[in-house]
């Protein structure tokens, strides 16, 4: 999964030779971990409260996050702008690297290729998912208190459930594999041994964070999250 660092580096140099966008690429790389990686971890833990503590635990988690000072500023500068930049610049880099793809065999580049595929999937998933959740709160269709039942509506729809599992796995793979690459490109894991150890750590991160999200998704299918569903049902878009 997280191998072939030499190859990654040569790809990276290939980009670097291309022009003067070195600092944009560094910013792209940094934003993928701080704040976006941090956001994924906090988001997984908040959602997991649904599994661990039921509707009340989940509601408390949502309430806690939304009671933080300057939430809109945090959302805009800590989530939305970084996602837009990371996603759009990432697509641009993926397009650029396509121009070189003939130089390398698929088998030696599969982690690199998967990183690009999951990047695109995650970008699409996040738009759709924010539309279904946060955006509905913004326009007043659901309240924060009703988000548990909103998620219940989503998770009990088999097609949405599958799309969520795919979206979550794509996002978490993209984050974990990206973290491994980040550690190399920032000079943190230099030796082959360090890169091997970090590949195991990143795999564990992938498994644990995926499990947190998927367990929460399963928890949301439970009848205990139905309670405020009648209110959420007024929102016909997800039914
Ligand atoms: C089982 C999986 C997931 C569940 C149950 C879930 C649930 C939610 C809920 C309920 C909200 C609204 C929070 C609020 O308004 O307070 C939300 C927002 C959001 N989610 Fe997820 N989510 C999941 C996976 C993901 C993944 C994998 C990503 C990718 C990074 C993601 C990205 C976002 C973003 C960007 C927001 C908007 C955050 C904000 O504006 O505060 N979610 N999610």
Automatic annotation (TrEMBL):
Gene3D superfamilies associated with the record: Fumarate reductase/succinate dehydrogenase, transmembrane subunit
Pfam families hit by this protein: Sdh_cyt
InterPro entries, per the entry: Cytochrome_b-558 (IPR011138), SQR/QFR_C/D (IPR034804), Succ_DH_cyt_b558_Firmicute (IPR016002), SuccDH_FuR_B_TM-su (IPR000701)
Main localization (coarse): membrane
GO cellular component: membrane
Transmembrane spans: 27-50, 70-92, 113-131, 161-188, 200-220
Sorted UniProt keywords: Heme, Iron, Membrane, Metal-binding, Transmembrane, Transmembrane helix
Subcellular location: Membrane
Binding locations of heme: 43, 86, 129, 174
One of the record's GO molecular function terms: metal ion binding
The protein, known as: Succinate dehydrogenase cytochrome b558 subunit
